Amino acid sequence: MKSDETITKAGPDTGADSVVSTGSAAWIGVVVFGMTVPVHLLVPEAVSLDLAAITLALIGGAYIGFGSRDHRAMVFWTELMVAGGFGLVALAGLQWHWSAIPIGLALHAVWDLFHHNVLQHKLLDHNVPSLAQVPSWYIPFCVVVDLLAAGFFALLYGF
151 to each of 64, 70, 106, how far by Cα in Å? Predict the structure, then answer.
């Protein structure tokens, strides 16, 4: 899919279509990431690590909401367990080594891609349970933020 293609997807409970350009969603991700950079450059490294860990835990938790909105128990529990895993990775970044945080962010980008409709259909073809339905704009937005943040924190903290 080209970055300027438009995705139309009906929300599960709203019945309303949302039309968002994947390229626009990705650029919004760049802007959102860019707005966080000055904070991490201005605060002490320990505070920056705390904020990065909290961010990782929160973005992992976003899928709990998607899972509950999906109304399938197995999907909810899958999303909850994976979100808990991201919380543990964030904690590892604080208690063990900072590198867990950018690694966790990169893994979250992979988790985002697993929710992409094309990949979901391939998983279903192999009898892998479906994951939560996610707004189509969210995937390019979140992948961009995750990967930019992972690279930024790796450079900032001295990979």
Answer: 25, 32, 9
